[in-house]
């Protein structure tokens, strides 16, 4: 037998909701923070490049031709205007139309061949990264036309800037972004906590109502007090309590009826025992003991019927349904009760046309047939006849059910009483006249077992309008 799989408890619904809300939110915030940081860096680079281009243009305006050569009038004060806004150091270089060094730092890295011209500006400007004096720098290279009456050409103006300012701005942007996103996550967590707590409040009230209920209070919970998604659960709880109420009511009724029915034979037994204690005549003593034996048999029979009824009503073994031979079960019941039939000189016969299989609990199916045959034998006069008939019954679409019929030539049951005889302890007038010791439980047991097997039961007159015929129709095996 396979051992049941142990499942870990689900834990808190509130914590699970918060996790499912906040973990994806935190992931989205991280993605958004990376995107915002990259966009901010791109904007900062554009701003720094624009400032670098402005410095380059300022130098280009001071490049001219004098005495047939390119000259650059670049005093330090010319660079001071754009150095004041940066934390880095500035390097520049001016190259003439023939590639000669004109001014600035001669060893400033040259413009690489693979660098593309910037499309962000109409000027012939190129931006590139390089290393100068062991420090990373960002360089703007601008081609500037120069000319006079003696010559014309294009000079190259390069302005480089160290990256301390850019890195400082990047750190500031990163810290500001992380701080804002952290505050956003914290605010979202607080709001989500309050939102989940508020949303779960009706469920918590329902939990409190369930815990506060007394064991005997099986009234319905109001589904309108919870959210629409939880209402099916409340409806299921109400349905379960209704079924539980029905079960408890049936148990109470059964206990009351059983105690009432057992009280009479037990009182008789007590009276008979007291008479036996006072009797001095052996013959009288024997008669009393025989009476006690008969009363005990009747009481045992009643107790067995009560136990069978309890088992049938509560469905103790109803789930154990399997294909069972209706013919074989009827034959076994006939063999079990043959002695009882012989004692009353009753002709007990079985008519079966082929094999008939039904989906049933073997024990309860045997009990159903046994109750019907036992009743037929009890209420059929001596010299009578009881017939068991088993046959297949067509249901259409190639499906066949089973039909069980028990017919006798006893007193029968009046038409007006045929619905009442299925109630516990009810006995028809004809039954009381034929057998005063009956319990009134046989047909009740038959009804409950038939219901558990989804079988239909019908009472009708026997052949020629005499006696009683009980028909039980079982559904197809594959239904």
From TrEMBL:
Keywords: Kinase, Membrane, Phosphoprotein, Transferase, Transmembrane, Transmembrane helix, Two-component regulatory system. It is found in: Membrane. It catalyses: ATP + protein L-histidine = ADP + protein N-phospho-L-histidine. GO terms for molecular function: kinase activity. Its EC number is 2.7.13.3. Its main location: membrane. The lineage of its organism: Bacteria, Pseudomonadati, Pseudomonadota, Betaproteobacteria, Burkholderiales. This is histidine kinase. SUPFAM superfamilies: ATPase domain of HSP90 chaperone/DNA topoisomerase II/histidine kinase (SSF55874), Homodimeric domain of signal transducing histidine kinase (SSF47384). It comes from Noviherbaspirillum album.
